[in-house]
Amino acid sequence: MVTDTGFILSKEAFDSSSGVSFVFWLWCENGPLKVQVEHQEVVFFIPENQVTAAKRLLQNQNIHARFADAKLKNFQNQSVICCYFKSLKDYYSAIKVLKSSQLVTFEDDVRPIDRFLMERFIKGSVWVKGEIQIRSGFRLLKNAKLKPNNEFRPFFKHVSIDIECNGEGVLFSIGLVGDGIDKVLMIGRPKPTTHLDYQINWCEDEIDLLTQFENEIQRIDPDVLIGWNVIEFDFSVLHARAEALGISLKLGRNKEIMRVRSGNITRITMPGRVVIDGIDTLKNATYHYDSFSLANVASIELGEEKLISTDNRLEEIIRQFNEDKLSLANYNRQDCILVLRIFEKLKLLDFAVVRSQLTGLELERMGGSVAAFTNLYLPLLHRSGYIAPNLGDHGLSFDSPGGYVMSSQPGLYKNILVLDYKSLYPSIMRTFCIDPLGLVEGLKKPDDAIEGFNQAQFSRTEHHLPELIRELAATRQMAKDKNQPMLSQAIKIIMNSLYGVLGSKGCRFYDPRLSSSITLRGHEIMQTTKQWIEEWGYDVIYGDTDSTFVKLDDDLNSLNCNEIGTKLAEKINKRWQQVLQKDYKIDSFLEIEYETHYSPFFMPTIRGKTMGSKKRYVGKVEKNGASKLVFKGMETVRSDWTELAHEFQTELFEILFAENYSQELIFQAFDRYVKKLYAGEFDAKLIYRKRLGQHLTDYQKNIPPHVKAAKQYLADNPHLAFQRGQIIKYVYTANGAEYYTGQHNYDYGIYVNKQLLPIAEMIVVDLGTKVSSLSDRQIQLF
């Protein structure tokens, strides 16, 4: 018997003669470890009063099951019975049979291998103990036992992968760059490559290419394979070509076969290895870009470009394969390098590891907020004597409201303070004990419960989320203190997702009494905060979800404003402690912070109306001796406006916020931009960028400008193709919207009326000038 510690790379479940077997591949300091857990049973639950009927149905179908009472009940306080199975085949057959006969099952959608880990609180890192066997290239641990190891940190050997192919998926080359390799596998006759600082392996055909790729993976033996859209595209294409050519790709450890499952999402099973996609990981880490294309992200994050930048990249790839294979190899390799550098700069592997260790999700898992919540909450719920509900078990049909947004008071202000509640929704859940179990127990004993909204009652003692939130908040603070940004960010994402999960109808724990008790409490807190601040002699001009905007006197300097902001936060926090103790006999975990001092600050009206807008404003902040404009919801931060609009709006607000401001300066700026526009000086800044939300053929009735431009361009260039999700660049000409190619007869009048004029009007109208004065100036200029 030996004991080791490692990190789970892959997991699979199999039927065996002695029951269900779970197989895990671990990264360990001493090399890869294959772990087998044998003689397992898998389980779901049924109501106790349906046991007799269930036994009869399963016996008729020759499905073997074991029924046992684990002293558990559902959220309707009905006793439930465990249904155990020694084979996955019987397990899934039983679910189908029982449901087809209208019997109720609980937790049958929890994957057995996931249940095995979550019930042991195993999240990524693990201690293992078992009987060791030495195999070629790895170690095998049989009859293993597992327990959590929350402190273990892996250091993966990783390689960046990229393929090149034609439009039908026929392969040209495969690039591999990373630990222990810098190589391109290319189909073609050998060419001199002594001048290159990387290696090219020449392949006879696709079968040879795939065989060499398989050999390289086995030789390098990476733990993690990374890439850009690498699961949905690269490995899906590789798998499809291997199937078409009648071969299997043995890319897993111990030369196990890679398997691909397609559906709403594509899943890659590569025993002993993990495939991690850059786009998915960026989205999980809440990065935002106008486009997640490798070209765009590499340009923003690295300041580097792809080696092929033409609009029709596929056509150029095919040309290079036929005419200039060395250039294609350079391009292929460069894409691998860009992915590698993005992962390293943004520490995406570190983020994936930390996220897995917090939630139990697989390293490569996309999204997964509901699954993460289930992993964390379900084993705690079982230990409290309950099983999880099915969707809709609450029987309620009303919807809970969204976050609180206050009507704004538009105008130009000298001093605005912003006070933000720190993690408002998690703090509400912790303070008012909002929790699925707490709701069930609170409704049973309402006399000693904390009142929520829509007849909700929450137990003061029987709950799990308040403690979970407390632990997460404490761990996040430690992460900040120890300068562990990836851990801090991962915890922030998890905490912020808790309300989203409880408010999602796709979550088994969704109950509108839970979500409304969070959001409506948020409304109450924001309204009360406004009331208190106004009682203390200040005006509140706006509020949004967790932020309150406070107007101070114009004659105050930044030091005065900062002192007031700090004192207001202290008074509000102290008052909440007093009020909640008095009214509910609970401690307050609400914490408002003085966040920002804007000077000046501009809140616009809704276009064409006199009332103030929401979620749109501009302010100037001072930080480290430098001033910066902050735009919220304005054209400057919107990707569907042109660079001309972004630049113009920024300049107008610099003018508006300057000490020597006069309205004539706004007019002069407008005149200057219009003249330069018609002189062609802004031609490079007139490009609109819009994503295709669906395939071009799916647009039939309401066809937006970018789709019209793309369709017209394809009509003239039928050899091209646009994909769903692709960013379309287009401009306005005398012929309407045209796909951007660089040479156009621009309709400058449209840009004045649709880009410059609305931005200028927003400022001058709100400051009391008639719209016609700007329009008239445009007419007078020409």
Automatic annotation (TrEMBL):
PROSITE patterns: DNA_POLYMERASE_B
Pfam families assigned: DNA_pol_B, DNA_pol_B_exo1
Residue ranges that the Swiss-Prot or TrEMBL entry lists as coiled coil: none
Gene3D superfamilies per UniProt: 2.40.50.590, DNA polymerase family B, C-terminal domain, Palm domain of DNA polymerase, Ribonuclease H-like superfamily/Ribonuclease H
Stretches assigned to the DNA-directed DNA polymerase family B multifunctional domain: 377-759
Alphabetically ordered keywords of this record: DNA replication, DNA-binding, DNA-directed DNA polymerase, Nucleotidyltransferase, Transferase
SUPFAM superfamilies referenced in this protein's UniProt entry, alphabetically: DNA/RNA polymerases, Ribonuclease H-like
Gene Ontology molecular function: DNA-directed DNA polymerase activity
Record has NADP as a keyword: no
Keyword ATP-binding: no
NCBIfam families per the UniProt record, alphabetical: PRK05762.1-2 (NF004421)
Sequence similarity: Belongs to the DNA polymerase type-B family.
Protein name: DNA polymerase
